[in-house]
TrEMBL record:
<dbReference type="GO" id="GO:0009279">
    <property type="term" value="C:cell outer membrane"/>
</dbReference>
<feature type="region of interest" description="Disordered">
    <location>
        <begin position="163"/>
        <end position="188"/>
    </location>
</feature>
<protein>
    <recommendedName>
        <fullName>Outer membrane protein beta-barrel domain-containing protein</fullName>
    </recommendedName>
</protein>
<comment type="similarity">
    <text>Belongs to the Omp25/RopB family.</text>
</comment>
<dbReference type="InterPro" id="IPR051692">
    <property type="entry name" value="OMP-like"/>
</dbReference>
<keyword id="KW-0472">Membrane</keyword>
<keyword id="KW-0732">Signal</keyword>
<dbReference type="Pfam" id="PF13505">
    <property type="entry name" value="OMP_b-brl"/>
</dbReference>
<feature type="domain" description="Outer membrane protein beta-barrel">
    <location>
        <begin position="10"/>
        <end position="154"/>
    </location>
</feature>
<keyword id="KW-0998">Cell outer membrane</keyword>
<dbReference type="InterPro" id="IPR027385">
    <property type="entry name" value="Beta-barrel_OMP"/>
</dbReference>
<feature type="compositionally biased region" description="Basic and acidic residues">
    <location>
        <begin position="171"/>
        <end position="186"/>
    </location>
</feature>
<dbReference type="InterPro" id="IPR011250">
    <property type="entry name" value="OMP/PagP_B-barrel"/>
</dbReference>
Length: 422
């Protein structure tokens, strides 16, 4: 194999662990969709192998110290691969599902009693795939993966001995039907940098997009994970993975897939004053499964958020700017700005009014084509599905300023799973 490409893989995992003293034994499996291909010849257009999905199952053994776990794992992996060769005298395509051995190492940290994050390196040894051409070509299918993940444990781990005292920013309300506690949880769910694990799903339906006035759909999956740096500072991780149905600019059709993934980190004080704030970096990786779904560039820049919570209100603003610092040299450079003011008014029985328009600017576009400015709002409610706290809302927006061909109307449906400390 000649080199390789680094691309995106995402999926789910489940497992079971048993701890004896400082030793941990467990078994886990995962399944993910892959979006990468690596060349088998110096020019990728002449030959490549692509992975479509990857599944693994492995046993692991580790050493536990306080909230940290260092582990190794060994097991098996299954990969569905496609391969193609196309050069003078040789044309061949193949597809199969193959298995091989898996080995990996990782480190895991329990940042709350029921939550951990982990960083892991795995390699699946699949062996070569020999084409049925003359002459035969050896195609390398081995896969190396660096994984970052978050896990929810159904049984609590160590007690939260370093948890902060309850404040307006980091309070962890217990499950209760008391109106004030419900409002505290609602305010936390509306605070982008609250000390609260949440998994929001934000569906943005954009109407009258492109030359054929089609509908664009963007579902943002954006888990928020707070990490304790020390008694005074938190680090909040916010990931945005878009699943997109994008109208074609040339044909009356849509392309579906995953877009470019954005990662934000905010450093925020655990004991803020009346003004709650956070600052940090934001970057975007070119993970789109089709060129039309992404910009093909690595983006980097600063991000910041500030808010206040007087009375029943949550009022604030989130902003960032990103510049292209790498990626496909054939794609246009990027210099883009995003600002999202948000205002929420919380009422009785979990209901709230909300407005959070997302305004963007493409600084490299022609004059008059740079800004998209929506206005609008809606309502929502905090409630429970069984024992699971959920916040859901719906908003409508009209783009009063927009580039040519941009959508005129947007409908946003929002659902967030909330995981307060028990």
């Amino acid at each position: 194999m000649y080199g390789g490409l680094t691309e995106f893989i995402g999926g789910i995992q489940a497992g079971y662990n048993f701890q004896a003293g400082h030793l941990l034994f467990g078994v886990e499996g995962d399944f993910g969709g892959a979006t990468f291909a690596h060349p088998t010849l110096p020019t990728p257009t002449l030959g490549s192998v692509s992975q479509n999905w990857i599944g693994t199952i492995a046993g692991r053994v580790g050493l536990v110290e306080d909230r940290w776990l260092v582990y190794g794992k060994f097991g098996g992996g299954w990969v569905q691969s496609n391969a193609s060769l196309n050069f003078p005298g040789v044309t061949w395509q193949g597809s199969n599902t193959s298995s091989g051995w898996l080995a990996g190492v990782g480190i895991e940290y329990g940042f709350k009693s029921h939550w951990t994050i982990k960083l892991e390196y795995d390699q699946i040894f699949l062996g070569n795939w020999t084409s049925t051409t003359v002459p035969p070509i050896q195609l390398n299918r081995d896969v190396q993966m660096v994984k970052f993940g978050a896990n929810y444990k159904f049984q609590s781990g160590l007690p939260d001995t370093i948890a902060p005292t309850k404040t307006g920013h980091s309070a962890k309300p217990e499950h209760s039907a008391h109106p004030s506690e419900n409002e505290d949880l609602a305010k936390q769910s509306q605070n982008p940098i609250a000390d609260l694990v949440s998994v929001p799903f934000q569906s943005n339906t954009n109407f009258n997009a492109g030359p054929f006035n089609r509908t664009q759909e963007v579902l943002n999956i954006q888990p928020v994970v707070p990490l304790r740096l020390n008694a005074d500072w938190n680090l909040i991780s916010r990931t945005i993975m878009p699943v997109i149905s994008q109208p074609s600019p040339f044909f009356n059709s849509n392309t579906n897939g995953i877009g470019d993934i954005t990662q934000e980190f905010f450093v925020s004080p655990t004991h803020p004053g009346p003004l709650i704030w956070g600052v940090g970096p934001v970057f975007t990786i070119p993970s789109a499964t089709d060129p039309i779904l992404g910009q093909g560039k690595v983006l980097l820049g600063p991000t910041a958020v500030a808010l206040v919570t007087p009375g029943h209100w949550v009022i604030g603003v989130l902003a960032n700017n990103q510049w292209s610092v790498g990626g496909n040299p054939l794609r246009p450079s990027v210099n883009q700005f995003l600002v999202q003011p948000f205002i929420n008014y919380n009422m009785a029985h979990g209901w709230y009014l909300t407005s959070s328009p997302i305004m963007t600017a493409n600084w490299l576009a022609a004059p008059g084509q740079q800004w998209t400015v929506p206005i609008g709002g809606g309502f929502g409610r905090l409630f429970k599905l069984g024992d699971q706290p959920v916040s859901a809302s719906i908003q409508g927006f009209y783009n009063v300023v927009r580039p040519d061909g941009a959508p005129t109307w947007q409908l946003r449906a929002f659902l967030s799973l909330l995981f307060p400390e028990k």
